[in-house]
Design goal:
It is built from nine helices and 15 strands. With about 290 residues, it is α+β, with helices and mostly antiparallel strands. Helix 1 (about 15-25) crosses helix 9 and helix 2 runs antiparallel to helix 3 (about 90-100). It has three domains: about 1-95, 3-Layer(aba) Sandwich (Rossmann fold), CATH 3.40.50.20; about 100-110 and about 185-290, 2-Layer Sandwich (D-amino Acid Aminotransferase, Chain A, domain 1); about 120-180, ATP-grasp fold, A domain (Dna Ligase, domain 1, 2-Layer Sandwich), CATH 3.30.1490.
Length: about 290
């Protein structure tokens, strides 16, 4: 099988692990940088061009590893591959749904999955209502798009929330207002779902920040999931139409609360914490869907 990883960082840990796992299982691996891709339409030579040339290499499956900074460009390129019949590990619809935090929350809520109390505010005029919806400060403010804890802020007072929202509204940045779950104490769960299984999970703890992301200095330790938490992770992944995802869950007094789903989860932190070969599990899923 010929597997293509579309990424700007072929040297990054997650990419090299996926490539290594694929080659160990006898597959060919190549990389495409999405920023070098353009699209030609309206002629018999329609398709994705790479460095201005038509792509002729075989592609049995494409693994998207699209950076958040080029989400829209990456999705346009991936949609063209889909239109040409190329199999994607995660669909463009699933990736788009995961990158828009509000869209994802709406899908989770409609599916009956437990989430923190959440409100959407277009600007400063909506803020006080939104704060009341989630129980008042402290609250978490989130931009609609962002990964690795970027664009996530904790505000302990109405005044601080108003100050943040005033700046964001001038930049035409709508926000999500979410309750601050005190009992979580700066900790959450990161769960890797592959297909219909939760293959690895770790407990993430912040290093002085309320955000527990490994990229922001958080630490991870392996954990065994209870049935409810495993169920919500699998259902959240299925809800967005993803085959592979990193699911973030808060442990609250009300039970597990779904935070968000990442369609290109990093592997370094969770493989290091759990000693589970997540990359191999992902390539196994590629084989399964390619049959």
């Amino acid at each position: 099988m010929e597997i293509v990883i579309i990424t700007q960082g072929p040297e990054l840990y997650s990419t090299t692990r996926l490539a290594s796992a694929a080659r160990a299982r006898g597959h060919g691996v190549s990389h495409l940088n999405p920023t070098r891709c353009t699209i030609r339409m309206g002629s018999e030579e329609r398709g994705v061009l790479y460095n201005g040339q038509r792509i002729v290499q075989p592609m049995d499956c494409l693994i998207p590893r699209i950076g958040a900074s080029i989400t829209q460009h990456g999705l346009r390129v991936l949609r063209q591959f889909e239109a040409e019949g190329v199999l994607l590990l995660n669909s463009t619809q699933g990736i788009a749904g995961s990158r828009d935090k509000l869209r994802a929350m709406q899908a989770f809520d409609a599916a009956g999955l437990d989430i923190p109390r959440t409100s959407y505010a277009r600007g400063a005029g909506d803020l006080r209502r939104a704060l009341g919806d989630v129980g008042g400060p402290p609250v978490i403010l989130k931009l609609l798009e962002g990964t690795q804890g970027i664009g996530v802020m904790r505000c302990d007072t109405v005044a601080s929330a108003e100050s943040v929202v005033d700046v964001l509204s001038r930049l035409q940045q709508p926000i999500i207002v979410q309750e601050y779950v005190r009992e979580a104490r700066g900790q959450d769960l990161r769960i890797i779902v592959v297909g219909d299984r939760a293959v690895a999970a770790m407990h993430r703890k912040s290093s002085g920040d309320f955000r527990s992301n490994i990229h922001r200095g958080g630490t991870g330790t392996a954990v065994t999931l209870d049935a409810d938490t495993e169920r919500i992770a699998i259902e959240a992944t299925r809800c967005l139409g993803l085959r592979v995802a990193g699911v973030d869950v808060l442990e609250s007094d009300r039970g597990p609360l779904l935070l968000e789903v990442n369609s290109s989860p990093g592997l370094e932190g969770i493989e290091g914490a759990t000693n589970i070969d997540v990359a191999n599990e992902i390539i196994s899923e590629v084989e399964r869907i390619s049959d």
